[in-house]
Amino acid sequence: MARGPGYGVGMTRDHAYFILMGICITAIVLAWTVVRLFSVTAAVIISVAVGLLPPIAAIVANAGDEGSRRR
Q1: N or C: which end of the chain has fewer CB within 10 A?
Q2: Domain count for the chain
Q3: 12, 68 contact by CB (below 8 A)
């Protein structure tokens, strides 16, 4: 698979997508299991901020030149 611009050595779009989505899921779980015990407002803010990651992950997964896309 071809590497897109801006990725580290060995980092593919698929890897970047799964890393971003893993961060998203982890942050949501931590916000509502740990952070909520200290501050519900902070948990809500974390949830809203992390809500922006899935569209960014989709953009990263679809970025690159047309020749490197799967058919």
Answers
A1: C
A2: 1
A3: no
Buried b (16+ CB within 10 A) or exposed e, 36-46: beeeeeebeeb
Q: Domain residues for 38?
A: 13-64
> What are the CA-CA distances from residue 38 to residues 28, 32, 33, 41, 66 (Å)?
15, 10, 10, 9, 47
Tokens 């949501």 belong to residue: 28
User: Does residue 28 form part of some domain?
Assistant: yes
Q: What is the pLDDT along the chain (71 residues), one digit of tens a residue?
A: 455 555 556 678 888 889 989 999 999 999 999 999 999 999 999 999 999 999 988 888 888 766 665 65
pTM for the full predicted model: 0.70
Residue entry with tokens 């809203």: 48
Is 30 among the domain residues?
yes
